[in-house]
Amino acid sequence: MTLDSLASAVAGALTVDDFAGPARARMDPGVWDFLAGGAGQERTLRANVEAFERTWLRPRVLTGAGLPVTETRILGRTWAAPMGVAPMAYHTLAAPEGEVATARATGPAGVPLVVSTFAGRTFEDIAAVASPCWLQVYCFRDRKTTRRLIERAESAGFEALVLTVDAPRLGRRLRDLRNDFRLPAGIAPANLTGDGFASPTGHALAEFDPSLDWSVVAWLRSVSSLPLLLKGILTARDALGALDAGVDGIVVSNHGGRQLDGAPATLEALPEVVAAVAGACPVLVDGGVRRGADILAALALGADAAFLGRPVLHALAAGEERGVARLLRIVTDELVDAMALTGIGSPREAGPDLVHGGAFRRTPVSRSEPEGE
Ligand SMILES: Cc1cc2nc3c(=O)[nH]c(=O)nc-3n(C[C@H](O)[C@H](O)[C@H](O)COP(=O)(O)O)c2cc1C
Ligand SMILES: CC(C)CC(=O)C(=O)O
User: Fold this and answer.
1) Domain limits of the chain?
2) Ligand 1 mean position to 86 CA, how many Å?
3) DSSP 370
4) DSSP H helical ranges for the chain
5) How far apart, in whole angstroms, are the C-alpha atoms of residue 204 and residue 167?
6) Which atom of ligand 1 is nearest to the CA of 290?
7) How far is the CA of 128 from the centre of ligand 2 (A)?
8) Residue 308: phi, psi to the nearest 5?
9) SS in 3 state form for 316-346?
10) Please, which residues bridge with residue 115 across strands?
11) Superfamily designation of domain 3-354
12) Judging by beta carbons within 10 Å of its beta carbon (0-12, 13-18, 19+), is residue 218 exposed, middle or buried?
């Protein structure tokens, strides 16, 4: 694809999926596989998207909802829409400016960017162009390295920590193993020092702390006063463990199907976690979110917001900052559309009676369903 045709592909994009083709055309096949792939036979990767495909929205008519408002408040901050960008390593694989370009789009869009421990650009450069930024934390065997990372992000103005808890080791990503995937020259974690990062799988196996337990929450509290969320919770039992440990939020996630192949789709795990949390802290979700209606379905099942993963890297590769800005616009417009057509005036109004299908079959009418207003 020429640069001109890429620019027009971005300008003409109408759905999230429209960015994947142009992104793939620009990428080395091994890099594409690293971004697109999952663990094992990729059952969980597919299940995430399929769970949304099987979920239907049950509209309510004549609700007088007017023009929907997408704004929401989470952890004391107003977000322009109940969505954000999930942490992903090395945005620099998609575009040279990496996370800085992504941040130039999330900032004006008023939604948070969760920056990976393996960001390709420095925390300072990213935070200089956008807020809110949150730090995704991988806890290494070497706690000093982890602590330095957190302190650096906190000084740069990051507003929350998101500890990833589904990666005592990296999942078996068959595409990367077959390709013997190595990071291209010039791609490295900008906020970590040292060698050995060239093979993401090898590095992570060597450095991730495989024996983390709930005491890591207290340790993180001792090194930082930022709000702390756990990412990678899929069951009521672990949600209750997180609450007992005193976290400020939970991200229902299976790491986009890149860790345990066979883990449930996140949309299907969400109601169990929401029921266990019972409003005690915000519950966010990621995995397979590909349109505004998916965000509405997640809200209906009790999420406070949903995060986008791979589509953001596709948009970044296809059109850098303008690509990501267009992606966020499309998803927001789709969300407004879905809210208007289901009679929902604000994110808070979405409830379980809004969805039907897959795991969420329910009797169509119940006396307890809110009437009128
Ligand atoms: C290329 C890539 C890199 C990722 N890197 C990280 C990471 O560094 N830390 C993390 O917690 N999750 C990471 N994830 C998982 C995402 O945060 C998120 O859970 C997942 O991508 C959401 O699914 P989706 O891509 O279907 O939207 C990564 C995902 C991808 C695709
Ligand atoms: C560099 C990797 C450890 C980042 C990651 O979490 C992923 O690829 O899913």
Assistant:
1) 3-354
2) 6
3) P
4) 3-11, 20-26, 29-36, 43-53, 99-109, 123-129, 143-156, 174-179, 200-207, 215-223, 236-245, 266-277, 292-300, 310-342
5) 9
6) 27
7) 24
8) -100, 140
9) HHHHHHHHHHHHHHHHHHHHHHHHHHHCCCC
10) 135
11) Aldolase class I (3.20.20.70)
12) exposed
Q: Is residue 198 classed as helix, strand or coil in its secondary structure?
A: coil
CA of 255 to the centre of ligand 2 (A): 9
Which portions of the chain are predicted below pLDDT 50? Answer: 363-373
At residue 363, the pLDDT reads 47
The vertex-254 CA angle with 266 and 156, nearest 5°, equals 110
- Looking from the CA of residue 34, the nearest atom of ligand 2 is 8
Active site residues: 255
State the ligand closest to the CA atom of 230: 1
Report ipTM (2 d.p.): 0.99
For atom 1 of ligand 2, which residue has the closest CA? 200
Look at residue 1 in the predicted model and tell me its pLDDT. Answer: 66
Pocket test for ligand 1, best of 19, 258, 331 (most atoms within 8 A of CB): 258
d(CA 270, CA 282): 12
- Indicate which atom in ligand 2 lies nearest the CA of residue 203: 3
The predicted pLDDT at position 113 comes to: 98
Question: What is the per-residue pLDDT for 199?
Answer: 79
pTM of the model: 0.95
- The answer to whether the Cα torsion of 230, 235, 241, 247 is positive or negative is positive
Q: How many of the other CB atoms lie within 10 Å of CB of 367? A: 5
